[in-house]
Amino acid sequence: MTIPAQKESSVEPLLKVDGLVKHFPIKKGLLQRQVAAVQAVDGLSFDVRPGETLGVVGESGCGKSTMGRLITRLLEPTAGRVEFEGTDITHLNTGKMRPLRRDVQMIFQDPYSSLNPRHTIGTIVGAPFKLQGVKPEGGLRKTVQEMLERVGLSPEHYNRYPHEFSGGQRQRIGIARALALRPKLVVADEPVSALDVSIQAQVVNLLDDLQDELGLTYVIIAHDLSVIRHVSDRIAVMYLGKIVELADRNDLYSTPMHPYTKALLSAVPVPDPKRRGAKSERILLRGDVPSPIDPPTGCRFHTRCWKATEICAKTEPPLIALATGHQVACHHPENAEDQQPGDTKLLQVAKEAIDVVSVVSKAEETAEEAAAPKKTVGKDTPKAAKSASKGASKSASKGVSKASKGVSKAASEDTPQAESEGQASNDS
Length: 428
Ligand SMILES: Nc1ncnc2c1ncn2[C@@H]1O[C@H](COP(=O)(O)OP(=O)(O)OP(=O)(O)O)[C@@H](O)[C@H]1O
Description:
By secondary structure, this protein is α/β, with parallel strands linked by helices. It has two domains: 15-264, 3-Layer(aba) Sandwich (Rossmann fold), CATH 3.40.50; 280-410, no CATH class. It has 14 helices and 14 strands. The strands form three sheets. An eight-stranded mixed β-sheet has the order 6-7-8-3-9-10-13-12, with helices on both faces. Strands 2-1-4-5 form a four-stranded antiparallel β-sheet. The protein has a two-stranded antiparallel ribbon with strand order 11-14. Helix 3 (121-132) crosses helix 4, helix 3 packs parallel to helix 5 and helix 5 (167-179) packs parallel to helix 6. The longest helix is centred in the last third of the chain and has 28 residues, at 383-410. The chain is globular. The structure holds adenosine-5'-triphosphate. Adenosine-5'-triphosphate (ATP) binds next to strand 2 and helix 1.
């Protein structure tokens, strides 16, 4: 097997993560003995290049937020190494991290709890200058007001309090605070998932514009693949504390290699209006994500994978490049050469791992229903299979029509910036 080289990049990475691990101990009894550990992040290695956006996607509980907090050093790693601009920052203490805080900032998911309700917007956005002892040219007030304008708020908001703002506006305040000191790296943890769908596109577009204006590098964490697709240059897919696939955005969407990525993508509606209404297949993974306290042996995804063979249960697949710039951790990848061709006997779990359903958009479904008489299921179809397939296809078409709304809004790049929610209600 030949392993293609990674895409050569002459620039040094801004952030380099190697073998990053975070286990949260579970303690019990009077003596508070450690009885187990939540393996939230278990051996992540990746680079973030200057000026790029790395999207990190995965189901709830797979360790995305923990990873974000580790690379911004809000959490102490159990093992591994984090380098920022070539400097090892893995174990820097608070004092030594302070100058670095200028360069590495975080935007949080919840714009309601991340702003101190007793402070004015001026105090909140101006806080990083005070903490860093920076005296901006032209004075603090003017600089903060400029920053407010830059994120689509009004300079008059300076003396207002967070409760006077909507969710979208609060997230803009959070963004202004994070960008006040012109950081180099911004880690945004689910920056739009707490917002109404109609507001999400505005905040995503704002982050995009600010990246160009200020030359920022982003790590954007999200569970929503349509948001991730819109903003990312490269995407890392996480499952149970590990990166299972890491690739350029277009490669990942056109030729996903990890079965988990394929399943995730099959649930994403097609944003192309010409193809809307076309039938597509959706892979529904059965079963829940296993506990990170006792993750499966071998490949962590093998208990839900339709391609799992013996080796998958025994040996963990390494994350390797199977195409240029496309890394995957799988013994039997999709769209690439099988890494273990001799191992062909499917595990029992693999045979029951998924439901594959045909999905039609809501519009198409309605048209079909109107045109044809009600279909009856053939006599020889087992009863259980009838009801299962009915349930699956129903939920699938529902999910798709619901999700496609999200995409059409999130992908509407032309949406003018949030004048309606951004200023109108609070300018009085
Ligand atoms: N401080 C903590 N103590 C113990 N366990 C924790 C702690 N923080 C996170 N965890 C556990 O680590 C695992 C990963 O959590 P994390 O929040 O990083 O996942 P996530 O992918 O960001 O999920 P979500 O999208 O729901 O926030 C979860 O099982 C979580 O319960």
